[in-house]
Amino acid sequence: MNANRKPTWITYVLFSEVLVVLVFIDQFTKDLITKSLALSQVDPVIKGFFSLMYVQNKGSAFSMFSTKSWGITFLSVISAIAFLIVLFLAYFVLVKYWSRRLSMCLIFLAAGTLGNLIDRVRLKYVVDFLRFDFGSYTFPIFNVADICVTLSCIALAVLLIFNEKFIPEIPFADKEEEKPMYHNPLAEKESGKHIEEEMRELEKKEKEARK
User: Fold this and answer.
1) Tell me, what DSSP letter sits at residue 64?
2) Could you tell me if residue 194 is inside a domain?
3) DSSP β-bridge partners for residue 142
4) Which of 26, 31, 43, 146 does the annotation list as catalytic?
5) pLDDT tens digits, 119-152
6) Ranges of H-type helices in the chain
7) Using alpha carbons only, what angle is made at residue 116 by residues 113 and 121, rounded to the nearest 5 degrees?
8) Is residue 116 a contact partner of residue 144, using CB atoms and an 8 Å limit?
9) In this structure, is residue 152 part of a structural domain?
10) What is the pLDDT of residue 104?
11) Is residue 197 one of the residues assigned to a domain?
């Protein structure tokens, strides 16, 4: 990570385009599902394992808080705040520390947050449609935005835990270099004289003791 480098306008455009493209894919696939499937309809892709199923999720990722009446309003506010914070961090990391990979992870997180936020504001629910079955267990149904959030969180954890160069330098974590002591010839000379005087005193006392 090079804090001295500054991103060009092309970098800003590319990162912004990634955000827009991810949100577009999320919204496009949701719109396609709502037009192709009836509510709760299941369309098997890989029988017994993967299928498309249109559900309306009034909760957060993987249907959390879906049974709460206040869930959609609460999650909309939280999502809006989270999106603004994550988007700011994505560009802050890019400008301040020139960490493109860390910034890209945050862009994915922002895209996933925005994708589901659009649904909550526009529809009052989130469209989920990706369903995986493992025997008798059905994994919580999710969408493209949830994938962006999950992948970004995993990538962020890997970068921050296993790759220290992506962590901004923390001033108080640096080891302070030992500063060399100031060389004072006059003080050393006076100290030497003092030692010589003490040695003379000791020799004088030893001679007196022998007498």
Assistant:
1) T
2) no
3) 130
4) 146
5) 999 998 999 999 999 999 999 999 999 999 999 9
6) 9-36, 71-97, 100-123, 144-162, 185-210
7) 115
8) no
9) yes
10) 92
11) no
Q: Quote the CA–CA distance of 206 and 150 in Å, as a whole number.
A: 84
Give me the mean pLDDT over the 180-193 stretch.
56
Residue 188 included in any domain: no
Specify the 3-state DSSP secondary structure of 70: coil
Q: How many domains does the chain have?
A: 1
Catalytic position from the list 26, 31, 43, 128 = 128
User: What is the residue range of 52's domain?
Assistant: 9-173
Q: Active site includes 26?
A: no
Any idea which residue has 């790759």 for tokens?
Answer: 163
DSSP for 25-62 reads HHHHHHHHHHHHS-TT-EEEEETTTEEEEEEEE-SSGG
Flag whether pLDDT at 178 surpasses 50: no
Identify the DSSP state of 201: H
Cβ–Cβ < 8 Å for 113, 83: yes
Rounded average pLDDT over 55-79: 71
DSSP H helices, 141-184, are 144-162
Indicate the pTM of the whole model: 0.70
Q: What is the pLDDT of residues 29-47, one digit of tens each?
A: 999 999 999 999 999 999 9
Are the C-beta atoms of 149 and 61 separated by less than 8 Å?
yes
Of the candidates 63, 67, 68, the residue with the CA atom closest to the CA atom of residue 53: 63
Query: Is residue 113 within 8 Å of 23, Cβ to Cβ?
Result: no
pLDDT one-digit tens code per residue, 70-105:
667 888 889 899 999 999 999 998 888 778 888 999
Quickly tell me which residue has 């098997």 as its tokens. Answer: 44
